Amino acid sequence: MRSLYPDRGAHSVHQLQAHLVFVTKFRRETIDAAVLQFLRSVFDGGCQDLDCQILSCQSDLDHVHVVVQYPPKIAIAELVNRLKGVSSYKFNRQGSGKSLNTEGDSAYEQGDEPAHPSINNVKPPFWAASYFVKSVGTATLAETTGYLKKQEANRRAKEAAKRKKKPK
Description:
- By secondary structure, the protein is of the alpha+beta class.
- The protein folds into two domains: 131 residues, 2-Layer Sandwich (Alpha-Beta Plaits), CATH 3.30.70; 29 residues.
- It is built from four helices and six strands, in the order E-E-E-H-E-E-H-H-E-H.
- A four-stranded antiparallel sheet has the order 4-5-3-6, with helices on one face. It has a two-stranded antiparallel ribbon with strand order 1-2.
- A hairpin with a 4-residue loop joins strand 1 and strand 2.
- Helix 1 packs across helix 2.
- The radius of gyration is 23 Å and the shape is elongated.
- About 13% of the residues have low confidence.
């Protein structure tokens, strides 16, 4: 499991997090507690494949918010495509009367599978085509630009000190 501290790659140290929002097709109100639990499980599996980690996953009836930590080798569009594609596929595949689980097999003995009305009424595709993404960080934009300005001032001071030391 990944931590909230910076990760190391072969040529980088990184700490990338994004806030994603996926909306159901036609804003159908289909995300109840059971569906959210199913989506969390599917999202976790999809993220493990990409070396990512779900930090938070919450929902309203027609959209889901996901905060994810990811490595720089993964494009946001690739991550979104994986999460939405796999979850829509598994959700719609299991929407034909099967119980919600991530293995694709029924968790119940044949004959006593519960009907799940919010699943049986949904037709593919589950998600709307668009999504929202925002980078998440510990520093605000003002703090980051202030830090960069300090770095510029430090560089100029070092250059000036270097020029003073140089014999003419």
